[in-house]
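Table S2 (continued). Query chain:
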Amino acid sequence: MRRVVVAVVAAVLALAGCSGSDDPAAVSFELPGEVPSDVTFIDAPSDAPAAPSFELELLDGSTLDLAEQWEQRPVVLVFFESFCELCTQQQADITALSEEYRDAVLFVGVGSATSEDDAAEYVREHDIAYPVGLDPVGEVFRRYGVDEPPLVALIARGGQLVRGWPGGVEDLGSQLTEFVVAR
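Corresponding output:
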């Protein structure tokens, strides 16, 4: 009986795209739903510049319009490359924060020089559930001044660029509560 249960569980996981497939299409993302009523956002400083808007094709084939997202909630952009060691070192903390703030803040991963297959493997390896897409010509990287990853950019609800951290950020959770989400 136990073998039957194990076989059924393995089959369900394979059908759900959790089988460790190298197919980028096996990667899927879910955008957050409505912002909970008990979440309070902090307004961006009046002198904060407008964040560059863009559309990003995600690894699951869907397209994300960033401006549509920041109308409802703050956005954290995580510029990465699958081969970047510093990106890998910071990813566990970023993934944990993306889960903690799942309903209030949208995290979005943006790679450029990474291949689609390598990006999908990176997503699976680090259990990333937030949307991830590629910027193959580097336009989004240029618009955000990313010379090399990691870079984390924090956009307030409404679309103002609040902060950016070249080299990543170790205390992102405290930065979120200081600049965009009151707790």
